[in-house]
Amino acid sequence: MSALSQAPIIGKASELNFAVESIIPDNQRDKTKTFFDLRVAPKSEQVVELKLRNDTTKDVTVEPSVNSATTNLNGVVEYGATKAKKDSTLPIDLKEIVSVASEVTIPANQEIKLPITIKMPDRTFDGILAGGITIKEKDTSKSDSNTSSDTQGLAIQNKYAYVVALLLNQNDQPVEAKLELNDVVPSQVNARNVINANLHNVKSDYINSLDVEATITKKNESTALYTSSKKNMQMAPNSNFNYPISLNGEKLKAGKYTLKLNAQAKEGKWSFTKDFTISETDAKKYNSQDVSIKKDWTWVYILIGILLILIALFLIFFIIRRNRKKQEERRRLEAARNRKNVRRKKRPSKDQIPKK
């Protein structure tokens, strides 16, 4: 039966104002582990404890929470709070059977014990219930009402927390691993187009050292359009995640496609073939949002070319018109000079005037 090698911790001790230590109880399956891996019985109730230490000169308020384990898109098990929905195959949600105070203050330069109550339901299960206890410092910063929304949008804060794994087990009955392929749909990761293949661990045990190879073709064709492979992933019990197949900057094109996916882990091998469709609506939506797609500037270039031609024609017309005006002005001046000269010639000189 799978287990963790160490308690997962997000962040570093130097970045936190408190420290966390597990107090291992007698029903710990492996007392060398620093996280909780407990053998429990139906209808049993137990209180385990975490030691919280504050080495600073100020009181520190923390907010504990409990979550069932999930698997993220990188194939990494998450024990802290996520936005993932409760998995449909999860036999018991840790949130429903594990309770802890929502807020605790650790006095300056002191340590306290945080009790965590586990109340098992009147039912049996094989395998592992996996999750974690998250301890994060309460955010006491006050937002500045004079700060503009633009400035607030640029304010990025890194928040860290301790996450101690909590595994519950009732027996040593082996659980046969089973991986399923759910929906295959177009989507985006970090504003880049992908095809998501949802992989689902439907059993209450870990899937370890998971390697995946995926190929997408046009339906009823053999030429690979997109491929993806990734090794050494892990899936939490009763969890699913979207395995992303990148389009590498290409546009989504509407049509019918086929996904072939091979998965191999310590617990078994699986092969899947699934047809799926990309609609025109989805293709346009995701293509317009993909920051890696090279934009088609053809029409822009055409419009710029037309504009330059119009400007050139206008300049030519202006120059021709100006030249014509100058020519007409010169002709008028020449005509005026000619008329003046003619009048001078017709005027009699003094010698030609008869004397009286």
From TrEMBL:
Stretches that traverse the bilayer: 297-320
Domain WxL Interacting Protein peptidoglycan binding: 18-137
Alphabetical UniProt keywords: Membrane, Transmembrane, Transmembrane helix
Pfam families: WxLIP_HBD, WxLIP_PGBD
Domain of life, source organism: Bacteria
Organism from which the protein derives: Carnobacterium divergens DSM 20623
InterPro entries linked: WxLIP_HBD, WxLIP_PGBD
Record region (Disordered): 329-356
Domain named WxL Interacting Protein host binding: residues: 152-287
Basic residues composition bias: residue spans: 338-348
Name the UniProt record assigns to this protein: C-terminal membrane anchored cell surface protein
